[in-house]
Amino acid sequence: MVPAAGLGLRLGAGVPKAFVWLGGSTLLRRAVDMLHAAGEVQLVVVVVAAEFVRAVTDELGSDALVVAGGVERTHSVRAGFCAALAAAPSAQYVLVHDAARALTPSRLVTDVVCALRSGAEAVVPVLPVPDTIKTVDANGLVTGTPDRSTLRAVQTPQGFRVEVLRRAHAQDAAATDDAALAERTGATVHTIMGDPLAFKITTALDLRLARMLLEQE
Ligand code: C5P
């Protein structure tokens, strides 16, 4: 499942982030191609804002099922999940992968699926956090410094047994990733080593970095 219904305001590209061009294709197209290239995915469901469903359906053809998203990321994932369950009712596992992580190597998909097949009920790729992280209050005053050695930056694709994601999204709650919803239902979320190339393109600087990396290839 590829949630791509965000506006991408922080990128400031003038179009939703999923439709930004990078190395000859859009971020969305790259995500869909990468998922198929991993050779593990039976069905790709793409979630875009309602007004883009028709155009993206035409563009992706049989490569993906395209559905309309919601206001928050959680709503978009929920919509994509319903469509995925209807189209592939016997699926055992589901991966959720942000279109914004445009340079994610397909190796990460294989590693997540491998961890699920080995028995994990939920899996997220992570990297150590290089910066010291502070918590702050509404006035910007520091309220704490979590021990950095216990912190990880979380990437996608995140993988789940289907029933685990179903329970996670049965809650009427929102979160910035799907693992957080699964954690709240008591699921054990495993981590695997992420990849620096799976960084999320959020700002104009991230996009420049992605373009430079592709040019060097
Ligand atoms: O906002 P954030 O960076 O967490 O978004 C991560 C991913 O979720 C992006 O690929 C974005 O397009 C998607 N998203 C979505 N529906 C929303 C908001 C974000 O599919 N309402």
Instruction: Give me the CATH architecture, please.
Output: Alpha-Beta Complex
Give the H and E element order.
EEEHEHEHEHEEEEEHHEH
Please report the distance between the alpha carbons of the first and last residues.
Answer: 27 Å
Taking pLDDT < 50 over at least 5 consecutive residues as the criterion, the unreliable ranges are none
Global geometry: globular
As a whole number of angstroms, the C-alpha radius of gyration is 17 Å
The helix-and-strand class reads alpha/beta
Question: What is the CATH superfamily classification?
Answer: Spore Coat Polysaccharide Biosynthesis Protein SpsA, Chain A
Helical content (DSSP H or I, runs of 4+) = 25-40%
The hetero compounds bound to this protein are: cytidine-5'-monophosphate
